[in-house]
Structure formats: structure tokens, C-alpha cells
């Protein structure tokens, strides 16, 4: 992971936010390559979910319409959704080291013998885990009756026993506080008075902006059940322990669909979205066994999920989670929880009148049925998606001058092609410049590079993950051919300059989407 982070920094994919001021924990900025990579991911999602949605389980194209709601909403939205009361993580402080931890991320090595010291570490953090292990060995050398040490969650330790726990970064025992609930929503004030009555929240998920607009969408568009509303945008969570690069940040982007359907059809649509979303991630380059689908156990269900209803995660094996996996996207049957809550809290009538359901009238037509629809929610993270794409693409290759290349799926590659003049004279830069400009119009980000020798230019493009480089040389001026270099195979071939656009179109897989 250190090598991936270093490449991200060196090549301008991702920087710490406010780096010149020492950064700010849990916030990351995207540089030129990273911004384009993340945009490619969001554009692909928008294209495939909103503009050309898939064919659904009944053989018809799925209906999806977009919204773009505000980050700040009336605070009653978050009371109704349950976030004000319940969007909490258990937090624990260390009085000695002044560190703060998510209590459910702290593990404790507990002995089988009574009355002995216990040693805590942060889950997934090799440094504190090794410190705790060493402390156990040292302790056992003097207290053999402590018995066997095994890891348990801090939250399972009785409050009175915390006095015997040595914290992950502490020297003394008993410095960890009792875990307490910490609300993850960022607060702000609306207006100049800034009193308690003016408190508002930065949204912790884009989903509620969709539910709050559900009635407006039904009233103003021609959508009919079943249909989805999609939104891409920022979400904010004051995470207790942001970590693992962009994986757990305090500001991040979500790509969410709330798909409304009759309760009787919820299982069918849940299965459809779960499988289609998995196939989608595979289609944009996460095709290896690093990607898995995991159905939740019954005890993992969120507060809005119906018992027995489906909830699953699409997970990726990041270098920092390996051999385990981290969530990229959750697919949940939210039942009608959210619309019910908003109907109750706002007084708005959110029931849908379905003219195609209900008993048949004398004329043979259905009488119609009024109901609050169920919701199936595929909720993906754009930052975690971009991070998984970066990790999957990272390919060490000691034979290359760059020692590594980024094997991005062509659709995700931030630079689609590069055009080089072999040397900066004899009319080559002019021909290369004209070709680069022509390609840009069709393929977006195409780079013209005339600096340094050709080997260094190839190396730069390998690190940027550019799939194809075209070089204009002396022969081009005579026979109108250029050299194409393939990033993955390193093969070089000559093609006619007029065929470059067609070649790229085919290789980037753009034909079928035209
Ligand atoms: N509306 C449902 C919802 O927000 P979630 O599982 O809390 O569900 C959905 O979040 C996705 O948002 C996650 O799968 C993840 O990709 C992304 N996400 C959540 N918290 C994040 C964080 N702190 N940093 C980066 N991405 C995050």
C-alpha cells in the first residue's frame, strides 16, 4: 500500500488535503490524474445506471431518473431518517496517549487466568498488534499463571475490567475510557445568529435527499412503479478514526440508487441489483478474485433493513485489508422504512397509487392499489471505487524503466492516449500536435508530450496508466505511418496515421456504446 500511495502522490492521483499546512486528518484531494480517474468512474456509473440503464428481470429497460439534492437539508430530514438519534459509533479515548479509537475496532488480548493485565491493539494495525503481542510475552515471562491470551473485542470487556487493560498506545493500564456513543454527523449553523435553533447537518448519505424528493419526482415525471432515483454527490461523516488512505475518510462521494417497488417484488429486485452491480464492477476492471459478494449475517442488519430481507456487500481485497476485504458498495432492502418515517414526520402523503394493481373492477380493469413502496438500495462509494481501481491496476514490472505500470481498464484510464514526436524538429511536433488535437475531440484526455527522451515519456505514461502511445518519427513524414505502443504487452506496430482514431475506438471498447 505504501508503494501505491507513493505513486499516487508522485504522479498526482491523490494528495493529502491542505498539505502545505500539514494536512487534515481524514480529508484527501484528487490531483489531475486522480480527478479524471474518479470522474471516469462516476461518468461510467451515470452512463450505465441513469442514461442507458440495464434490462431488468422482466425484460424491460429499468427506469431510473436522477436528482441533485442539497448537502444541507432541513434538520428534520435527519430526525426522521434516524440519523440524529442513531447514527453513532462507539468511541473510546486514551487518557495517557490522548488517542481516540472506534471501540469496535479495538481488540484486547485477554488471558484465561483471572485478575491479570490485558493488552489492546487496533484491528488491522500491525504496529499496535505487535506491541501488544510483545507486551503479552514479557508479562507471561513473569506471570505464567495468566494462562492463554486470546483476542476479544474491547466492547465485550466489562467496564470494571477496563482498569486492567493497557491501551494500544499506552504504557500504563486503565487509561481507556468507557466506550460512549459519538454522532458522526458534521454540524453547522444556518444564518448569522448561530444559535442552537440554527443547527443543521452536512448529509452523511445522499440517500435521504432522494427520499425527500420522492413525491416531487412522482408528481413531475412519468415514472411508474417500479423505478429508481439516482444521485451522485458528496457525503460527510465525522469518522472517529479515519484511516487506510481514502478508504475511510470524513468527506467522500457516493453513487446511490433508491429503487422503489411493490413489497411483493422486493426480493426479485434485490437479487437483480445485487448481481448486476457485481457484474458492473467487474466490467470496469475489477475482474479478479479480489472482488467478492458477501451476504450479510442476520446480526449485521442495519436499523432500516427488514428481518429476513436481503443485504449484501460488494467487497474488495485491498492491500490493507488482505487477506480480508473492505466494502465498496452495499445493496440493501430498506423495506419502506424511510418513506414511512418521512411521511410520519412531515405529514406528506407519500403513498403511491398503482393503477396496475388491485382487484379487477366490473370493466375488467384493476381498481388500483395504494401503498408505500419498498426500496432496494445499491449504494456505492466513488472514492473506495477509485481506490480499488488504483490497487487493482498497480502492476510491478522490474523490466520496465518505470518498474511499475498502471493497468487501468481503458474506460477508467485518466489518459486515453499519448502522442509523441520522436524528436523536436523536422516537422514532427506539428504532425503530432495535429493528431493529438484531433484525437482529443473524440476521446477526451489525450496527452501531447515532447519533453525528454522517448523512453522517459513511455515510463511516465506507464505510471499514468495510458493504454496507447503513438509516436511520430521520420518515417511518418514519408509514409504516413506511426508507431503504436501497447501499455500491457509492450508490443509496437506501425499503422497508418488515418487509422489511429479507428484503432483507438476499437481498442478502448467505445464502438458498442456509440
Ligand atoms: N445510503 C446507505 C449508505 O450510506 P453505507 O454503507 O454507510 O450506506 C455506502 O455507505 C458506501 O459509501 C460504502 O459502501 C462506501 O463505499 C462509502 N463510504 C461510506 N463511508 C465512507 C467513508 N468514511 N469513506 C469513504 N467511503 C465511505
Would you kindly provide a written description of the structure presented here, covering whatever features stand out?
By secondary structure, this protein is α+β, with helices and mostly antiparallel strands. It has three domains: 2-74 and 195-392, 2-Layer Sandwich (BirA Bifunctional Protein, domain 2), CATH 3.30.930.10; 88-182, no CATH class; 401-508, Anticodon-binding domain (Rossmann fold), CATH 3.40.50.800. It has 14 helices and 27 strands. The strands form eight sheets. Strands 3-13-14-20-17-16-15 form a seven-stranded mixed β-sheet. Strands 24-23-25-26-27 form a five-stranded mixed β-sheet, sandwiched between helices. A hairpin with a 7-residue loop joins strand 21 and strand 22 (404-406). Helix 2 packs across helix 10 (382-393). It is globular. The two termini are 37 Å apart. The structure holds glycyl-adenosine-5'-phosphate. Glycyl-adenosine-5'-phosphate is lined by residues 205, 207, 237, 239, 248-249, 252, 254, 256, 327-330, 377, 379-381, 383-384.
Number of strands: 27
Strand arrangement in the largest pleated sheet: 3-13-14-20-17-16-15
Portion of residues within helices: 25-40%
Bound molecules: glycyl-adenosine-5'-phosphate
CATH topology of the largest domain: BirA Bifunctional Protein, domain 2
CATH class (first level) name of the largest domain: Alpha Beta
| Major sheet size, sense and barrel closure | 7 strands, mixed
The total of helices stands at 14
| Coarse shape | globular
Share of residues in strands: 25-35%
Report the mean per-residue pLDDT as an integer: 94
Evaluate the radius of gyration: 27 Å
* SS-derived structural category: alpha+beta
Give the N-to-C terminal Cα separation.
37 Å
Question: What is the name of the CATH superfamily of the largest domain?
Answer: Bira Bifunctional Protein, Domain 2
The figure for the number of domains is 3
In the predicted model, the low-confidence regions spanning at least 5 consecutive residues are: none
Query: What's the architecture of the largest domain, going by CATH?
Result: 2-Layer Sandwich
Amino acid at each position: 500500500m505504501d508503494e501505491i500511495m507513493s505513486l499516487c502522490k508522485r504522479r498526482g492521483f491523490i494528495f493529502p488535503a491542505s498539505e502545505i499546512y500539514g494536512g487534515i486528518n481524514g480529508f484527501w484531494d484528487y490531483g489531475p490524474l486522480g480527478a479524471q480517474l474518479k470522474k471516469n468512474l462516476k461518468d461510467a456509473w451515470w452512463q450505465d445506471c441513469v442514461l442507458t440503464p440495464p434490462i431488468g428481470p422482466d425484460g424491460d429497460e429499468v427506469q431510473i431518473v436522477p436528482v441533485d439534492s442539497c448537502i444541507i437539508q432541513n434538520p428534520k430530514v435527519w430526525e426522521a431518517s434516524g440519523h440524529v438519534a442513531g447514527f453513532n459509533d462507539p468511541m473510546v479515548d486514551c487518557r495517557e496517549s490522548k488517542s481516540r479509537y472506534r471501540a469496535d475496532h479495538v481488540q484486547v488480548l485477554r488471558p484465561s487466568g483471572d485478575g491479570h493485565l490485558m493488552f489492546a491493539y487496533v484491528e488491522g494495525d500491525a504496529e499496535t498488534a505487535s506491541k501488544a503481542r510483545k507486551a503479552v510475552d514479557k508479562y507471561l515471562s513473569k506471570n505464567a499463571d495468566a494462562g492463554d491470551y486470546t483476542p476479544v473485542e474491547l466492547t465485550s470487556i466489562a467496564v470494571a475490567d477496563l482498569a486492567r487493560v493497557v491501551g494500544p498506545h499506552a504504557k500504563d493500564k486503565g487509561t481507556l475510557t468507557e466506550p460512549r456513543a459519538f454522532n458522526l454527523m458534521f454540524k453547522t449553523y444556518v444564518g448569522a445568529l448561530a444559535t442552537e435553533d440554527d443547527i443543521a447537518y452536512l448529509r452523511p448519505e445522499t440517500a435521504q435527499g432522494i427520499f425527500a424528493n420522492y413525491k416531487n419526482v412522482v408528481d413531475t415525471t412519468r415514472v411508474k412503479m417500479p423505478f429508481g432515483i439516482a444521485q451522485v454527490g458528496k457525503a460527510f461523516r465525522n469518522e472517529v478514526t479515519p484511516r487506510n488512505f481514502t478508504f475511510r475518510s470524513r468527506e467522500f462521494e457516493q453513487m446511490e440508487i433508491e429503487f422503489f417497488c411493490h413489497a411483493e417484488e422486493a426480493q426479485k429486485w434485490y437479487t437483480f441489483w445485487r448481481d448486476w452491480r457485481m457484474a458492473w464492477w467487474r466490467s470496469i476492471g475489477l475482474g479478479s478474485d479480489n472482488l467478492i459478494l458477501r451476504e450479510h449475517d442476520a446480526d449485521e442488519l442495519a436499523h432500516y433493513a427488514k428481518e429476513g430481507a436481503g443485504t449484501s456487500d460488494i467487497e474488495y481485497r485491498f492491500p490493507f485489508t488482505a487477506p480480508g476485504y473492505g466494502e465498496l458498495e452495499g445493496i440493501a432492502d430498506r423495506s419502506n422504512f424511510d418513506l414511512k418515517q418521512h411521511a410520519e414526520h412531515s405529514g406528506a402523503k407519500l403513498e403511491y397509487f398503482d393503477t396496475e394493481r388491485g382487484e379487477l373492477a366490473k370493466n375488467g380493469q384493476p381498481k388500483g392499489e395504494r401503498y408505500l413502496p419498498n426500496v432496494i438500495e445499491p449504494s456505492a462509494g466513488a472514492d473506495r471505487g477509485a481506490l480499488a481501481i488504483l490497487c487493482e491496476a498497480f502492476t510491478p514490472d522490474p523490466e520496465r524503466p518505470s518498474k511499475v505500470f498502471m493497468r487501468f481498464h481503458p474506460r477508467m484510464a485518466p489518459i486515453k492516449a499519448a502522442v509523441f514526436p520522436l524528436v523536436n524538429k523536422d516537422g514532427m511536433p506539428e504532425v503530432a500536435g495535429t493528431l493529438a488535437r484531433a484525437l482529443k475531440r473524440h476521446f477526451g484526455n489525450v496527452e501531447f508530450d515532447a519533453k525528454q527522451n522517448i523512453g522517459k515519456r513511455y515510463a511516465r505514461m506507464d505510471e499514468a496508466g495510458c493504454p496507447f502511445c503513438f509516436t511520430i518519427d521520420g518515417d511518418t513524414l514519408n509514409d504516413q505511418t506511426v508507431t503504436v505502443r501497447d501499455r500491457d504487452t509492450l508490443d509496437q506496430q506501425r499503422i497508418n496515421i488515418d487509422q489511429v482514431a479507428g484503432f483507438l475506438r476499437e481498442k478502448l471498447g467505445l464502438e458498442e456504446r456509440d
